[in-house]
Design a protein that fits this description.
Layout lengths: L7 H9 L8 H8 L5 E7 L7 E8 L5 H8 L2 E12 L4 E12 L7 H7 L3
Antiparallel strand pairs: 1-2, 1-3, 3-4
Length: 119
């Protein structure tokens, strides 16, 4: 049996977001409340562009691009918006993923440099 990734309510909410705002993470998170619970942040590795590095999860109500700038600096990011815990699948419901970029004039923070360092 194939699980659906989104409920009809979430699909409807996503369709109601103005097309020009669907790539603005804060707008998408705001439209998906109360379904959006967590936002998982991933950053593209500057040295190896094919590699995406997981940074952290934050509560949807705490998420903002300004918060990402403060914690991680500039670069290319993905915000994976997650919903309620699904006990059958033992993970949160995946709602949507939004790629976004922050100008490179904001240097990467020490936290990002440590995560991007090869092991």
């Amino acid at each position: 049996m194939k699980h659906k990734t989104q409920s009809p309510d979430v699909r409807t909410l996503i369709q109601q977001i103005p097309v020009e705002a669907r790539d603005i993470p804060e707008v998408v998170v705001a439209h998906l409340r109360p379904h959006a619970r967590m936002v998982a942040i991933w950053r593209r590795d500057d040295a190896r562009p094919e590699r995406w590095v997981y940074l952290e999860r934050m509560y949807a109500q705490e998420f903002s691009v300004d918060e990402v700038i403060q914690r991680y600096g500039g670069g290319e990011y993905r915000a994976k918006i997650l919903g309620r815990w699904d006990p059958a699948r033992r993970r949160e419901q995946y709602l949507i993923q939004i790629p976004f970029a922050i100008h490179p004039r904001y240097p990467p923070t020490a936290a990002v440099v440590a995560k991007l360092r090869p092991k």
